[in-house]
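Handout, section B. The chain below has 249 residues.
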Amino acid sequence: MTTVDTSRGPQVRPQVQVTSRGEVPHRQEEYAAHKLAEVVRYTRQPVRSVQVVLEISADPARVRPSTAEATLDVDGTPVRAHVAADRLHEAVDLLEARLRRQLVQLQDRTRTRHRWTRVVDEHEWRHGAEPTPREAYFPRPVEEREVLRRKSFALGRQTLDEAAFDLELLGHEFYLFVDAATGDEAVVHRVAPGQYVRIGPPAVLSEEQAKERLDVGGEAFVFFRESAWRPAQVLYRRYDGHYGLITAT
């Protein structure tokens, strides 16, 4: 792991911690650390931590084998990004550019919300975010897929605009929340650059049925609940071809 102290002069900046997976040269770790040390300049809020993970996959089937991801704690607000590219140097540059845009949006959050989206119809709406490179899913055979990550969290009541804004800050393609207008659990999903849909109510399915729908339909995720009185869940495809499961509490 590489750690770079980014403190300069009177302004205290956090250390950047870089963790590597695979055969990542030390110079690439240093490059990532210095790039991410500079990106914190794009916010006036205190950045408490910067954690970076670099990976070069040895799997020849991976479309873009080099990945870079980062999590920033910006005064208690998580800002995340994950990108993939042919080369690690390119992935780090893409990561820095995406985080820079996210920090600028966060800095200007109040003004951005007033002009960010407009309702196109009941479920579809748009904003002006730039397209972001997304990693293709690893084509793992269905019989090898497992739920490798399960996490639960309490949902906050948010407007569609607020939910989509947080989706962008977290670097996700979908975001589970409670719609402030209806009080119902819902998902905001990015379907194209600058284009979003609100999905809800969730389908009533078992976890196995949700897996089947995910496998057969080729979708990025399935929004469901196991019965009318059970919490909403999202089963999604991970970049490594396995599943992840999010449960509302």
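Note. Residues 6-11, 110-134 have pLDDT under 50 and may be disordered. Compare this with the example in section A.
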